[in-house]
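[scheduler] slot 2 assigned
[scheduler] job type: sequence-to-structure, two independent chains
[scheduler] chain ordering preserved from manifest
[runner] begin chain α
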Amino acid sequence: VNWSCTLKSAISDIEVDKIELSGRTLMSVPGYSEKVEFGVLVSFAYRVCDSDQEIVVATTRIETMLGDTAVAVHPSDERYKHLHGCRLIHPFCNRTLPLVTDEFVDISFGTGAVKITPAHDHNDYEVGIRHNLPFLTIIDDDGNITGDCGKFSGMKRFEARKAVLAALKELNLYRETKDNPMVVPVCNRSKDIVEPLIKAQWYVKCDKMAKSALEAVNSGDLEIIPEQHIKTW
């Protein structure tokens, strides 16, 4: 769902303003005294288990790498065929990530390798379903880092953005940051940055309810005024 951490509520698509950025932009976010950087693409490396090789991925939301559960490449990408089936080391969390092959990956974009965060990205969610990946929620309703995220747990999401970047640099896993035109989803009520979160949802089964409502009118228990609206009912 579209989640507003300020409102602590899911919001509809029509309540989301899509702000187009041409590149690096500092934006005000509720709850933060300093403006937050958007419109950049950060590249970093995942090291291959039991190997001196690495796979470089890029993201506009570096803090979400704490929830990565796989890296995806296109099955026909010759650059990675020798690594099919390997696992990658997560530098901050006590787990390894599988390298999966999926045709949704655009070979021509970046390195052709995509980090997969199923619980915090709409496209990654679909990849997670297809490959039966874990769905790790690492951002809570308040916009704080949660779960098995080591020293980053408890940080506000955009404070974690800076901290994760600094930690990647310390481990020599950071590769580059460059301008990236993008669309930032903003809640038009709270002006908060919309966070994609997985939430339980419920639906009303309307067939029995509609039948009861129709019977109420036909029996005279419910009167529609004016009568010309009975047909619509």
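[runner] end chain α
[runner] begin chain β
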Amino acid sequence: MVLGSPFHFYSQAQYFKSNRSSLFPSSIPADLNLSPPLSAAAAHTSTTASLTSSRHSIFRIKLLFTLFVGFKSGGGFTSSSLRASFSYCVQQVRSYDYHHYLCLLELPLNMRKAAFAIRAFNIETARAMDVASDPKIGLMRLLWWQEAIDKIYAKKAIEHPTAQALSSVIHENKITKGWLKRSVEARINDARRESNEIPEKIKELEQYAEDTASTILYTTLQAGGIRSTIADHAASHVGKASGLLLLIKSLPYHASRNRHFSYIPTEVAAKHGLLSKQGGQIELHLDSRENLCSAVFDMASIANVHLQKARELAGKVPAEARPVLLPAVPAQVLLDSLSQAHFDVFDPRLSRGVLGLPPLWFQVKLKWHSWRGKY
């Protein structure tokens, strides 16, 4: 089981229907299929359906053109297969990590190609255990990616679209190998954890979030040519907040698979009466929904502290680095949704829209922060 893998929760397809448009220019790969989320809201208004459809098509073409030009200007494609690999990365992010997909669209054109490849790599490793029918197969996938990173840096060819795109980005931007290895190794160590093994302290979960979420932001900053200790410091806090909050949201999913809340640290569980001993082993049990909500509140409070620390640094973060830190916005949205649900992770409102927020309103909030240069 991969600790805190958020990608099984929702995909863009759950609340939007995407259709290929005959209006796509032939020079743009149709498999990008980037239909805007606005269509879901517009579909409810039949009286303006025709006008909405026209605007929808125009917006799709504009978005596709922007992404495509951004990819070409960021170093160019050397072959049609590499172009297809980057298209695949876009689709993966759009399907399995939609709120971050929207964040990446706010990046400057010259950073998008690298950002999509890096984020797609994160999806491949985060979903490895979830898509495998046998945990051993999932672990083998992660070990394959660990070896793939070594091969990429040794300039060996790998027949996998995400690996091909990542290889291109790594060699164009000279991305530090250690960050990518650190991410994969953290997931491998977690995959080897037994379902009834419970972290003792929340610091362990913070470290996991740092190793998996923060490193993605570090590599994106580096790919954009941004060298700033302050930006890295802010990215560390944003990654920890995002990782912790998505882990909290994933609690019902993990409990449904192994019947344990094994990702609530024992120090938090003991404080709220969620620990019990059976056969000499410590286990977490949901004897009280109220106690569980209190435990979730404590964990969410740690994430909130990281968000506040990241924003305290905003005035010193270089302007060009702030779009990379936009994942702080969906983290805040999820924190607010949890608060409105009284930190009940079983509240169905958390699974609606984008992290509990209507899709259109989420985009407005994200665009507002981007336009103001905030995160």
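[runner] end chain β
[qc] chain β: The beta strands are 275-278, 281-284.
[scheduler] slot 2 released
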